[in-house]
Design brief:
alpha+beta, Ubiquitin-like (UB roll), Creatine Kinase, Chain A, domain 2, eight-stranded mixed beta sheet, five-stranded mixed beta sheet, 12 helices, 18 strands
Protein backbone atom coordinates (compact mmCIF):
# COMPACT_ATOMS: atom_id res chain seq x y z
CA UNK A 1 0.00 0.00 0.00
CA UNK A 2 1.03 3.59 -0.49
CA UNK A 3 1.50 6.29 2.09
CA UNK A 4 -1.46 8.38 3.17
CA UNK A 5 -1.53 11.99 4.39
CA UNK A 6 -4.82 12.03 6.30
CA UNK A 7 -4.74 15.78 6.86
CA UNK A 8 -4.36 16.76 3.21
CA UNK A 9 -6.05 13.70 1.70
CA UNK A 10 -3.10 12.80 -0.48
CA UNK A 11 -2.05 9.39 -1.77
CA UNK A 12 1.51 8.90 -3.02
CA UNK A 13 1.89 12.64 -3.50
CA UNK A 14 -1.18 13.04 -5.75
CA UNK A 15 -3.79 15.36 -4.30
CA UNK A 16 -7.21 13.71 -4.39
CA UNK A 17 -10.51 15.62 -4.57
CA UNK A 18 -13.22 15.19 -2.00
CA UNK A 19 -16.33 13.15 -2.77
CA UNK A 20 -18.38 16.35 -3.18
CA UNK A 21 -15.88 17.66 -5.73
CA UNK A 22 -16.07 14.38 -7.62
CA UNK A 23 -19.86 14.54 -7.63
CA UNK A 24 -19.73 18.15 -8.92
CA UNK A 25 -17.40 17.12 -11.72
CA UNK A 26 -19.71 14.32 -12.75
CA UNK A 27 -22.72 16.68 -12.78
CA UNK A 28 -20.95 19.29 -14.88
CA UNK A 29 -19.25 16.87 -17.26
CA UNK A 30 -22.35 16.34 -19.40
CA UNK A 31 -25.36 18.58 -20.19
CA UNK A 32 -28.51 17.45 -18.40
CA UNK A 33 -30.94 18.90 -20.94
CA UNK A 34 -30.74 20.48 -24.39
CA UNK A 35 -31.54 24.14 -25.05
CA UNK A 36 -32.37 25.93 -28.28
CA UNK A 37 -29.53 28.34 -28.92
CA UNK A 38 -28.55 30.58 -31.80
CA UNK A 39 -26.13 29.00 -34.27
CA UNK A 40 -22.63 30.23 -33.55
CA UNK A 41 -23.38 30.92 -29.88
CA UNK A 42 -20.44 30.18 -27.56
CA UNK A 43 -22.45 27.50 -25.73
CA UNK A 44 -24.29 26.15 -28.77
CA UNK A 45 -25.05 22.44 -28.70
CA UNK A 46 -23.40 22.19 -32.13
CA UNK A 47 -20.10 21.75 -30.21
CA UNK A 48 -18.97 21.25 -26.64
CA UNK A 49 -18.85 24.38 -24.54
CA UNK A 50 -15.75 25.72 -22.88
CA UNK A 51 -17.10 24.67 -19.48
CA UNK A 52 -17.78 21.18 -20.75
CA UNK A 53 -14.28 20.93 -22.17
CA UNK A 54 -12.73 22.05 -18.88
CA UNK A 55 -14.78 19.68 -16.71
CA UNK A 56 -14.18 16.82 -19.13
CA UNK A 57 -10.43 17.45 -18.99
CA UNK A 58 -10.57 17.52 -15.19
CA UNK A 59 -12.28 14.14 -14.99
CA UNK A 60 -9.91 12.67 -17.58
CA UNK A 61 -6.91 14.00 -15.63
CA UNK A 62 -8.27 12.47 -12.44
CA UNK A 63 -8.69 9.11 -14.12
CA UNK A 64 -5.20 9.24 -15.65
CA UNK A 65 -3.74 9.99 -12.21
CA UNK A 66 -5.57 7.03 -10.70
CA UNK A 67 -4.55 4.77 -13.54
CA UNK A 68 -0.88 5.69 -13.10
CA UNK A 69 -1.08 4.95 -9.37
CA UNK A 70 -2.49 1.45 -10.11
CA UNK A 71 -3.69 1.14 -6.54
CA UNK A 72 -6.39 -1.19 -5.18
CA UNK A 73 -9.72 0.33 -4.26
CA UNK A 74 -9.40 1.63 -0.69
CA UNK A 75 -11.45 3.84 1.55
CA UNK A 76 -9.19 6.67 2.73
CA UNK A 77 -10.51 9.71 4.55
CA UNK A 78 -13.91 9.50 2.89
CA UNK A 79 -12.80 8.87 -0.69
CA UNK A 80 -11.82 5.83 -2.74
CA UNK A 81 -8.77 5.15 -4.85
CA UNK A 82 -9.14 3.42 -8.20
CA UNK A 83 -9.24 -0.26 -9.07
CA UNK A 84 -6.44 -1.54 -11.31
CA UNK A 85 -7.44 -3.49 -14.41
CA UNK A 86 -11.06 -2.34 -14.30
CA UNK A 87 -12.50 -2.21 -17.81
CA UNK A 88 -13.24 1.37 -18.87
CA UNK A 89 -12.73 4.78 -17.29
CA UNK A 90 -16.37 4.99 -16.23
CA UNK A 91 -15.95 1.85 -14.10
CA UNK A 92 -12.95 3.42 -12.38
CA UNK A 93 -14.82 6.64 -11.69
CA UNK A 94 -17.81 4.72 -10.36
CA UNK A 95 -15.53 2.81 -7.99
CA UNK A 96 -13.97 6.09 -6.89
CA UNK A 97 -17.18 7.76 -5.79
CA UNK A 98 -19.26 4.73 -4.74
CA UNK A 99 -18.20 4.10 -1.14
CA UNK A 100 -18.60 7.63 0.26
CA UNK A 101 -22.23 7.39 -0.85
CA UNK A 102 -22.57 4.06 0.95
CA UNK A 103 -21.07 5.52 4.13
CA UNK A 104 -24.02 7.91 4.37
CA UNK A 105 -26.47 5.02 4.61
CA UNK A 106 -24.32 2.99 7.00
CA UNK A 107 -24.38 5.96 9.39
CA UNK A 108 -28.20 6.04 9.53
CA UNK A 109 -29.57 5.17 12.97
CA UNK A 110 -31.09 1.70 13.38
CA UNK A 111 -34.00 0.60 15.60
CA UNK A 112 -32.54 -0.67 18.86
CA UNK A 113 -34.75 -3.77 18.88
CA UNK A 114 -33.76 -5.02 15.42
CA UNK A 115 -30.75 -6.83 14.02
CA UNK A 116 -29.69 -7.55 10.45
CA UNK A 117 -28.46 -11.14 10.39
CA UNK A 118 -26.45 -12.31 7.39
CA UNK A 119 -26.87 -16.08 7.02
CA UNK A 120 -23.76 -17.65 5.44
CA UNK A 121 -23.41 -21.19 4.11
CA UNK A 122 -21.20 -23.48 2.01
CA UNK A 123 -22.63 -24.13 -1.44
CA UNK A 124 -22.57 -27.30 -3.51
CA UNK A 125 -18.95 -26.85 -4.57
CA UNK A 126 -17.81 -27.50 -1.01
CA UNK A 127 -15.45 -24.54 -1.12
CA UNK A 128 -17.44 -21.40 -1.98
CA UNK A 129 -19.74 -19.40 0.28
CA UNK A 130 -23.17 -17.84 -0.25
CA UNK A 131 -25.06 -15.39 1.95
CA UNK A 132 -28.31 -13.49 2.37
CA UNK A 133 -29.63 -11.16 5.05
CA UNK A 134 -32.80 -11.02 7.14
CA UNK A 135 -34.17 -8.78 9.89
CA UNK A 136 -34.98 -10.18 13.33
CA UNK A 137 -36.75 -8.24 16.08
CA UNK A 138 -34.10 -8.86 18.74
CA UNK A 139 -30.33 -8.88 19.11
CA UNK A 140 -29.23 -12.54 19.01
CA UNK A 141 -26.75 -13.75 21.59
CA UNK A 142 -26.49 -17.33 20.30
CA UNK A 143 -27.28 -19.37 17.20
CA UNK A 144 -30.04 -21.24 19.05
CA UNK A 145 -32.09 -18.04 19.29
CA UNK A 146 -32.22 -17.56 15.53
CA UNK A 147 -34.89 -19.10 13.28
CA UNK A 148 -34.15 -21.54 10.47
CA UNK A 149 -34.42 -20.15 6.95
CA UNK A 150 -34.37 -21.52 3.41
CA UNK A 151 -32.99 -20.75 -0.03
CA UNK A 152 -33.10 -21.94 -3.64
CA UNK A 153 -30.73 -24.89 -3.72
CA UNK A 154 -31.09 -25.27 -7.49
CA UNK A 155 -29.06 -22.06 -7.83
CA UNK A 156 -26.25 -23.23 -5.52
CA UNK A 157 -25.63 -26.72 -7.01
CA UNK A 158 -27.49 -28.38 -4.13
CA UNK A 159 -30.96 -29.28 -5.46
CA UNK A 160 -33.12 -29.76 -8.54
CA UNK A 161 -35.54 -27.04 -9.60
CA UNK A 162 -38.51 -29.35 -9.04
CA UNK A 163 -37.64 -29.66 -5.33
CA UNK A 164 -35.29 -26.78 -4.66
CA UNK A 165 -35.80 -25.78 -1.02
CA UNK A 166 -32.73 -26.19 1.18
CA UNK A 167 -32.86 -25.15 4.83
CA UNK A 168 -30.39 -23.07 6.84
CA UNK A 169 -29.77 -23.97 10.47
CA UNK A 170 -27.80 -21.29 12.38
CA UNK A 171 -24.68 -22.76 13.99
CA UNK A 172 -22.41 -19.88 15.10
CA UNK A 173 -22.91 -16.11 15.49
CA UNK A 174 -20.32 -13.35 15.07
CA UNK A 175 -20.44 -9.52 15.28
CA UNK A 176 -20.76 -8.02 11.79
CA UNK A 177 -17.70 -5.83 10.95
CA UNK A 178 -19.41 -4.38 7.86
CA UNK A 179 -22.81 -3.28 9.22
CA UNK A 180 -21.52 -3.17 12.83
CA UNK A 181 -23.75 -2.26 15.77
CA UNK A 182 -26.20 -4.99 16.76
CA UNK A 183 -25.95 -6.74 13.38
CA UNK A 184 -24.58 -10.27 13.11
CA UNK A 185 -22.92 -12.75 10.77
CA UNK A 186 -24.36 -16.26 11.10
CA UNK A 187 -22.55 -19.44 10.02
CA UNK A 188 -25.15 -22.01 9.02
CA UNK A 189 -25.51 -25.72 8.31
CA UNK A 190 -27.55 -26.82 5.28
CA UNK A 191 -30.32 -29.45 5.35
CA UNK A 192 -32.78 -31.02 2.95
CA UNK A 193 -36.56 -30.97 3.61
CA UNK A 194 -36.32 -34.47 5.14
CA UNK A 195 -33.82 -33.07 7.70
CA UNK A 196 -30.88 -34.89 6.10
CA UNK A 197 -27.68 -32.83 5.78
CA UNK A 198 -26.63 -31.82 2.28
CA UNK A 199 -23.55 -33.43 0.74
CA UNK A 200 -21.36 -30.42 1.59
CA UNK A 201 -22.60 -30.06 5.18
CA UNK A 202 -19.74 -31.69 7.07
CA UNK A 203 -20.27 -29.67 10.22
CA UNK A 204 -22.80 -32.00 11.82
CA UNK A 205 -20.41 -34.99 11.70
CA UNK A 206 -17.53 -32.82 12.89
CA UNK A 207 -19.58 -31.68 15.89
CA UNK A 208 -20.47 -35.30 16.71
CA UNK A 209 -16.80 -36.32 16.68
CA UNK A 210 -15.75 -33.38 18.84
CA UNK A 211 -18.42 -34.25 21.40
CA UNK A 212 -17.03 -37.78 21.72
CA UNK A 213 -13.50 -36.55 22.49
CA UNK A 214 -14.22 -33.35 24.42
CA UNK A 215 -12.58 -34.81 27.55
CA UNK A 216 -9.28 -34.96 25.61
CA UNK A 217 -9.53 -31.23 24.79
CA UNK A 218 -8.47 -31.19 21.12
CA UNK A 219 -7.06 -27.86 19.93
CA UNK A 220 -6.54 -26.76 16.35
CA UNK A 221 -4.56 -23.92 14.81
CA UNK A 222 -5.00 -23.49 11.05
CA UNK A 223 -2.61 -21.56 8.79
CA UNK A 224 -4.75 -20.27 5.92
CA UNK A 225 -2.79 -19.37 2.78
CA UNK A 226 -4.39 -17.53 -0.14
CA UNK A 227 -3.53 -15.45 -3.21
CA UNK A 228 -4.69 -12.04 -4.41
CA UNK A 229 -5.72 -11.72 -8.07
CA UNK A 230 -6.68 -8.71 -10.13
CA UNK A 231 -9.96 -8.65 -12.05
CA UNK A 232 -8.30 -10.30 -15.06
CA UNK A 233 -7.33 -13.36 -13.00
CA UNK A 234 -3.62 -12.53 -12.79
CA UNK A 235 -1.82 -12.38 -9.42
CA UNK A 236 -2.27 -8.89 -8.03
CA UNK A 237 0.69 -6.58 -8.59
CA UNK A 238 2.48 -8.84 -11.08
CA UNK A 239 3.85 -6.96 -14.12
CA UNK A 240 1.64 -6.90 -17.19
CA UNK A 241 2.79 -9.35 -19.82
CA UNK A 242 5.49 -10.81 -17.60
CA UNK A 243 6.50 -12.19 -14.22
CA UNK A 244 8.10 -10.79 -11.07
CA UNK A 245 11.58 -11.78 -10.01
CA UNK A 246 12.10 -15.30 -8.63
CA UNK A 247 10.97 -16.28 -5.16
CA UNK A 248 13.19 -15.23 -2.30
CA UNK A 249 12.53 -11.63 -1.23
CA UNK A 250 8.75 -11.89 -0.80
CA UNK A 251 8.30 -14.10 2.29
CA UNK A 252 7.58 -11.73 5.21
CA UNK A 253 8.78 -9.02 2.84
CA UNK A 254 8.74 -5.27 3.35
CA UNK A 255 8.62 -2.55 0.72
CA UNK A 256 7.15 -1.73 -2.67
CA UNK A 257 7.80 -4.48 -5.20
CA UNK A 258 8.14 -7.07 -2.44
CA UNK A 259 4.60 -7.08 -1.04
CA UNK A 260 1.27 -6.71 -2.79
CA UNK A 261 -2.05 -6.02 -1.10
CA UNK A 262 -0.97 -5.26 2.45
CA UNK A 263 -3.89 -2.85 2.98
CA UNK A 264 -6.37 -5.67 2.38
CA UNK A 265 -4.49 -7.90 4.81
CA UNK A 266 -4.50 -5.31 7.60
CA UNK A 267 -8.18 -4.48 7.05
CA UNK A 268 -9.07 -8.18 7.18
CA UNK A 269 -7.04 -8.65 10.37
CA UNK A 270 -8.95 -5.89 12.17
CA UNK A 271 -12.31 -7.05 10.84
CA UNK A 272 -11.68 -10.56 12.19
CA UNK A 273 -10.73 -9.21 15.61
CA UNK A 274 -13.92 -7.12 15.63
CA UNK A 275 -15.89 -10.30 14.89
CA UNK A 276 -14.30 -12.13 17.86
CA UNK A 277 -12.46 -14.53 15.56
CA UNK A 278 -9.34 -15.92 17.19
CA UNK A 279 -7.00 -14.73 14.45
CA UNK A 280 -3.49 -14.97 15.84
CA UNK A 281 -1.25 -13.59 13.12
CA UNK A 282 -0.54 -12.90 9.46
CA UNK A 283 2.43 -12.72 7.08
CA UNK A 284 3.35 -12.40 3.42
CA UNK A 285 4.13 -15.76 1.84
CA UNK A 286 6.83 -17.08 -0.52
CA UNK A 287 5.06 -16.29 -3.81
CA UNK A 288 4.38 -12.59 -4.47
CA UNK A 289 0.69 -11.69 -3.89
CA UNK A 290 0.35 -14.73 -1.63
CA UNK A 291 -0.46 -14.28 2.07
CA UNK A 292 -1.24 -16.30 5.16
CA UNK A 293 -3.15 -15.76 8.37
CA UNK A 294 -3.58 -18.07 11.33
CA UNK A 295 -6.75 -18.92 13.25
CA UNK A 296 -6.43 -20.59 16.63
CA UNK A 297 -5.74 -22.29 18.82
CA UNK A 298 -9.44 -23.09 19.05
CA UNK A 299 -11.15 -26.02 20.71
CA UNK A 300 -13.43 -28.47 18.93
CA UNK A 301 -15.73 -27.41 16.11
CA UNK A 302 -15.19 -23.69 16.75
CA UNK A 303 -11.87 -23.82 14.86
CA UNK A 304 -13.69 -24.66 11.63
CA UNK A 305 -16.54 -22.21 12.34
CA UNK A 306 -14.06 -19.39 12.76
CA UNK A 307 -11.96 -20.31 9.74
CA UNK A 308 -14.99 -20.36 7.44
CA UNK A 309 -16.16 -17.02 8.81
CA UNK A 310 -12.68 -15.53 8.39
CA UNK A 311 -12.77 -16.58 4.73
CA UNK A 312 -16.13 -14.88 4.26
CA UNK A 313 -14.78 -11.69 5.84
CA UNK A 314 -11.69 -11.82 3.62
CA UNK A 315 -13.81 -12.03 0.47
CA UNK A 316 -16.00 -9.15 1.66
CA UNK A 317 -13.03 -6.93 2.54
CA UNK A 318 -11.41 -7.69 -0.82
CA UNK A 319 -14.64 -6.59 -2.55
CA UNK A 320 -14.10 -3.09 -1.15
CA UNK A 321 -10.59 -3.00 -2.61
CA UNK A 322 -11.57 -4.38 -6.02
CA UNK A 323 -9.30 -7.40 -5.51
CA UNK A 324 -10.12 -11.09 -5.99
CA UNK A 325 -9.17 -13.72 -3.39
CA UNK A 326 -8.46 -17.28 -4.49
CA UNK A 327 -7.87 -20.31 -2.28
CA UNK A 328 -6.67 -22.39 -5.22
CA UNK A 329 -3.82 -24.57 -3.89
CA UNK A 330 -1.72 -24.01 -7.03
CA UNK A 331 -2.81 -20.79 -8.73
CA UNK A 332 0.40 -20.48 -10.79
CA UNK A 333 2.23 -23.31 -12.52
CA UNK A 334 6.00 -23.36 -12.70
CA UNK A 335 8.55 -22.49 -10.04
CA UNK A 336 6.06 -20.89 -7.66
CA UNK A 337 4.90 -22.11 -4.26
CA UNK A 338 1.37 -23.41 -3.86
CA UNK A 339 -1.03 -22.57 -1.05
CA UNK A 340 -1.97 -24.81 1.84
CA UNK A 341 -3.86 -24.81 5.11
CA UNK A 342 -1.37 -26.42 7.47
CA UNK A 343 -3.29 -27.71 10.47
CA UNK A 344 -1.69 -27.77 13.92
CA UNK A 345 -3.21 -30.28 16.33
CA UNK A 346 -2.80 -31.10 20.00
CA UNK A 347 -4.63 -32.70 22.91
CA UNK A 348 -4.40 -32.34 26.65
CA UNK A 349 -2.08 -35.37 26.75
CA UNK A 350 0.20 -33.93 24.05
CA UNK A 351 0.49 -30.61 25.86
CA UNK A 352 1.31 -32.25 29.20
CA UNK A 353 4.81 -33.15 30.40
CA UNK A 354 6.16 -36.04 28.34
CA UNK A 355 3.50 -35.40 25.69
CA UNK A 356 5.85 -36.43 22.88
CA UNK A 357 4.74 -40.04 23.36
CA UNK A 358 1.14 -39.06 22.57
CA UNK A 359 2.33 -37.05 19.56
CA UNK A 360 4.33 -39.97 18.18
CA UNK A 361 1.40 -42.35 18.70
CA UNK A 362 -0.92 -40.03 16.77
CA UNK A 363 1.58 -39.70 13.90
CA UNK A 364 1.90 -43.50 13.72
CA UNK A 365 -1.87 -43.74 13.27
CA UNK A 366 -1.80 -41.06 10.57
CA UNK A 367 0.84 -43.03 8.65
CA UNK A 368 -1.61 -45.93 8.32
CA UNK A 369 -4.42 -43.72 7.00
CA UNK A 370 -2.57 -41.57 4.45
CA UNK A 371 -4.97 -42.19 1.55
CA UNK A 372 -8.02 -41.49 3.71
CA UNK A 373 -6.60 -38.14 4.77
CA UNK A 374 -5.54 -37.11 1.27
CA UNK A 375 -9.14 -37.64 0.12
CA UNK A 376 -10.43 -35.48 2.99
CA UNK A 377 -7.84 -32.73 2.61
CA UNK A 378 -9.26 -31.00 -0.46
CA UNK A 379 -12.82 -30.66 -1.84
CA UNK A 380 -11.97 -32.75 -4.92
CA UNK A 381 -10.71 -35.74 -2.91
CA UNK A 382 -7.05 -35.19 -3.71
CA UNK A 383 -7.18 -33.89 -7.28
CA UNK A 384 -6.52 -30.30 -6.22
CA UNK A 385 -3.71 -31.30 -3.88
CA UNK A 386 -2.10 -33.39 -6.60
CA UNK A 387 -1.05 -30.14 -8.29
CA UNK A 388 0.50 -28.90 -5.04
CA UNK A 389 1.96 -31.91 -3.18
CA UNK A 390 4.78 -32.65 -5.61
CA UNK A 391 7.69 -33.00 -3.21
CA UNK A 392 8.91 -29.54 -4.23
CA UNK A 393 8.25 -26.01 -2.95
CA UNK A 394 8.16 -27.05 0.73
CA UNK A 395 5.71 -29.93 0.24
CA UNK A 396 5.79 -33.69 0.58
CA UNK A 397 4.79 -36.15 -2.15
CA UNK A 398 1.07 -36.84 -2.29
CA UNK A 399 1.84 -40.55 -2.73
CA UNK A 400 3.93 -41.11 0.42
CA UNK A 401 3.57 -40.35 4.12
CA UNK A 402 6.54 -38.89 5.96
CA UNK A 403 7.25 -37.10 9.23
CA UNK A 404 10.19 -35.34 10.82
CA UNK A 405 11.43 -32.64 13.16
CA UNK A 406 11.54 -29.13 11.63
CA UNK A 407 11.25 -30.64 8.14
CA UNK A 408 8.89 -28.68 5.89
CA UNK A 409 9.21 -31.30 3.17
CA UNK A 410 7.36 -33.87 5.28
CA UNK A 411 3.67 -34.75 5.49
CA UNK A 412 3.71 -34.09 9.24
CA UNK A 413 6.20 -31.78 10.94
CA UNK A 414 7.16 -31.70 14.60
CA UNK A 415 8.41 -28.17 15.39
CA UNK A 416 11.94 -27.95 16.79
CA UNK A 417 10.73 -26.33 20.02
CA UNK A 418 8.26 -29.18 20.58
CA UNK A 419 11.00 -31.77 20.20
CA UNK A 420 13.21 -29.90 22.65
CA UNK A 421 10.43 -29.48 25.24
CA UNK A 422 9.19 -33.06 24.72
CA UNK A 423 5.57 -31.85 24.53
CA UNK A 424 3.26 -29.65 22.48
CA UNK A 425 1.68 -30.27 19.08
CA UNK A 426 2.32 -31.41 15.51
CA UNK A 427 1.64 -29.80 12.13
CA UNK A 428 -0.12 -31.68 9.34
CA UNK A 429 1.12 -29.95 6.18
CA UNK A 430 -1.04 -31.86 3.69
CA UNK A 431 -4.40 -29.96 3.75
CA UNK A 432 -4.89 -27.70 0.72
CA UNK A 433 -5.76 -24.03 1.03
CA UNK A 434 -9.32 -24.70 -0.19
CA UNK A 435 -9.94 -27.57 2.22
CA UNK A 436 -13.08 -27.81 4.35
CA UNK A 437 -11.89 -27.39 7.96
CA UNK A 438 -14.88 -29.38 9.22
CA UNK A 439 -13.63 -32.42 7.28
CA UNK A 440 -9.98 -31.91 8.20
CA UNK A 441 -10.49 -31.50 11.94
CA UNK A 442 -13.00 -34.35 12.02
CA UNK A 443 -10.73 -36.86 10.27
CA UNK A 444 -7.81 -35.92 12.53
CA UNK A 445 -9.93 -36.65 15.59
CA UNK A 446 -11.28 -39.90 14.17
CA UNK A 447 -7.83 -41.20 13.23
CA UNK A 448 -5.73 -39.92 16.13
CA UNK A 449 -8.18 -40.12 19.04
CA UNK A 450 -11.09 -42.40 18.14
CA UNK A 451 -8.71 -44.72 16.23
CA UNK A 452 -11.30 -45.37 13.53
Amino acid sequence: GGSVDTENKTWRGTRCPSSSQLAHRRRTSFPTRSRKLRPGSSDSTDGPSSALKKSGRAVAALLRTQQRAALPTASVCGFKTSVPNMSGEESRLEKTVGKPTMFHYLELSMPSDKSLCTYIWIDGTGEHLRSKTRTVNFVPKSAEELPMWNYDGSSTYQAQGSNSDVFLKPAAVFPDPFLRGSNRLVMCETYRPNNEPTETNHRHKCAESMEKVKDQEPWFGIEQEYTFLDTTGKPFGWPKGGFPGPQGPYYCGVGTGRVMGRDVVEAHYRACLYSNINISGTNAEVMPAQWEYQVGPCGGVSAADELWMSRYILHRVAEDFGIVVTFDPKPMTGDWNGAGAHTNFSTKAMRAEGGMKAIEAAIARLAKQHKRHIEAYDPKEGRDNERRLTGRHETSSIHDFSSGVANRGCSVRIPRAVAEQNKGYFEDRRPSSNMDPYRVTEVLVRTCLLEE
